[in-house]
Each structure stands twice: as C-alpha cells, then as structure tokens.
Amino acid sequence: MIDELEIQITKVERSKLNEIDFNHLPFGKYFTDHMLEADYEDGEWKSVEIKPYQPLLLEPSLAALHYGQAIFEGIKAYKNNAGEAYIFRPQDNFKRFNISADRMEMPPVPEEIFIEGMRKLIELDKNWIPHKYDYSLYIRPIMFATDTTIGVKPSDTYKFLILLSPTGPYYANPMKIYVEEIYTRAAPGGVGFAKNAGNYGGSLKAAAVAKSRGYDQVLWTDAFEHKWLQEVGTMNVFFVFGNKAITPSLEEGTILAGVTRDSVMTILEEMGVKVEERRISIEELIEAYKSGKLTELFGTGTAATISPIKELCYKDFTMKFETENWKIAPTVKKRLTDIRDGVAEDKFGWMIKV
Ligand code: COI
C-alpha cells in the first residue's frame, strides 16, 4: 500500500516540445512528453510511475475492451500572466472520479495518486502549458479494468493513467444544436451522472445524425417523454431568461455534475443573476423564445468552457440568436478567464498551484 507517495520518475531523453505548433492545437491531438501510470492489484494500488508517454501492451482479453468498465475525467491547467502554473478545481474532479468509480464497481483512486501525482506530472511538463486566450493544458485521468478473462464481473485489477494534452478551444464558433428525441443518453437509475467511457461512445450515433443535418451536437431529452432537457453532448446547458438562468437539475442522476457548471452558477449568482436548478421542458423553452424571454443559451464544460448556442432546432422549429449582442455568457466567460489568468482575485479558491 502506498502510505507516502513514492513516484518513480523516468524522464524522456529528448523532448517533443519543439515539434508542436502552439498556435494550432486541435483538442486532444497532442500529448506531452510524460504520463503517469499506476496499477491496482490484490486490493491495493501498488505502483505509481511517471514515465515517457508511450503505447501500452494490452491483452486482447482485457476486460475494459469487452464490457466497458472504464472511466475518465477532464481537468485543465493554466499558466497565469505571471507565468505560474495552476490547476482549476482538481479536487472537484477527484471527487467526481471516485463517484464514477463507485457506480462502475471500480476501486477509488487515492488523493495522493490523483492529485499529487497530477501535480508532479504537470511540474515535469509545465513548459507544455499554453498561455493564450482559450488555450490550456487539458488533463485526462483515466481508469480501466485490466483483468484478462471475459466473464462478466468486476475486474480484480485496474490501470490508472494521467495524460496531458496542450489544447485550443473545443468549439471555436457559436454552435448549432439539434434537440434529440429518438436516441436517449440517460435514464434515472442508469449511469448518466458518471463519467464512464460508454456514455460518450453511446452518444456518437445521435451526434453523427445531427452532423449530417448540419448541427454541431444534440441537446439530450429524457428517456420517457423526450421533452425534459438534460445536457448537450460534452456539456451542461444554461438557458438565460433576462436576469435569471435555468439549468437542468442533478436530482434524477441523468446528467453530469459539471465542475464548470458549478463555477458558472457561482459566478452568475455573484453577478446578481438568479440561478434555478430545475426541470425544464422544450415547450417552456419554445414559449420563452416566442415571447422574447429566452435571451441566451450556452453550454458549459471543461473542454468546451462556455460555448454560446446560436441555433437550436426542435422538430421543424428553429430558434435563432444574435450571440454578438449577448451580455451574460461573455461576462461569465471573462470572469472565469480573469480568475484563471490571475487578473481577478481567486476568491473561491479554485486555482491550485502546481
Ligand atoms: C470535458 O469537458 O472534459 C469532457 O470530458 C468532455 C469531452 C471532451 C469528452
């Protein structure tokens, strides 16, 4: 058992840093020089190692490949204007990771590995953190089942990895979204609140259909009536009605408890915008659009940050927005950016020094 974190560190012989064009960083395409790797066996986390980013040697019978016992997180590190490296709210992602682990019948990862391991890894690769508007170092912790037997049962062994990816914006432009009413992402009692790999794999068909119709993503609706709004693929969603913002509640366990969602709620309240976490139907949204009450709508997520939605289509009805004239979403985004850049005081204690 790891009482005190002992991380074996093996450094690369030659960094790849100079091979990357930091002005062109598509999301998740490039990875830094090092990664963290830990293995769980006999009921304990036994080894923690930081080593050169490299392929894994895995057996074809690997349990995760067959039954999807795999979870992940998305976190970001920034360099502030003084050049210091900070991670945004990693404790919240750490807690959520272990909530996902519990739902998927996987062991928790200890804080010393998840948080301290992440800090050590970033410390080593901190020259990879971009310092540019909407750019960051995306941190991808992942855990998956590594038993090599194909009976359907929780694995006895697991691998935990942390990868780092310097990245630009996920959605560079305001989005066009399609309200989904055929496919379902999550139902109460299911795994919608967990960040398990299958939730994303299962979303791809609906996203592909939306893309073929000219949309960037779908807005998921509930499994029974297809009328209660849940989340956009890869993001939580906020609807602004004048000086009030509504976001679907977490109560039914069908949406992800986004860390950016929580940060946005805090900032909105600080701005004097009332936040309502509750059920909201597509009918209510359409009525609010028709009466002029629905003034802005945007997605929030670690990868996506704050992404305005310029078009929302339900059946054959399309709601259109002039995002250039919005007040709330750009103000929230600026406030978050200022905190990350060290320009505004971090009064909520969100920025953790590497
Ligand atoms: C994130 O926002 O970090 C996500 O995990 C969404 C997506 C890129 C999978």
Q: How does this structure look, described?
A:
- This protein has 354 residues and is α+β, with helices and mostly antiparallel strands.
- The protein folds into 2 domains: 4-169, D-amino Acid Aminotransferase, Chain A, domain 1 (2-Layer Sandwich); 175-335, D-amino Acid Aminotransferase, subunit A, domain 2 (D-amino Acid Aminotransferase, Chain A, domain 2, Alpha-Beta Barrel).
- It contains 8 helices and 18 strands.
- The longest helix is centred in the N-terminal third of the chain and has 14 residues, at 90-103.
- The chain starts with 7 loop residues before the first strand and ends with a strand.
- The model has no long low-confidence stretch (mean pLDDT 96).
- Bound molecules: 2-OXO-4-methylpentanoic acid.
- Residues 74, 200, 234, 301-304 line the site of 2-OXO-4-methylpentanoic acid.
Task: Summarize the helices and strands and which ones pair or pack.
Blueprint: E1 8-9, E2 34-41, E3 44-52, H1 63-67, E4 70-72, E5 75-79, E6 85-88, H2 90-103, H3 111-124, E7 136-145, E8 158-167, E9 175-179, H4 197-201, H5 204-212, E10 217-221, E11 229-232, E12 236-241, E13 244-247, H6 259-270, E14 274-277, H7 282-290, E15 294-301, E16 305-314, E17 317-320, H8 328-341, E18 351-353
Helix pairs in contact: 6-8
The site of 2-OXO-4-methylpentanoic acid has 7 residues, from loops.
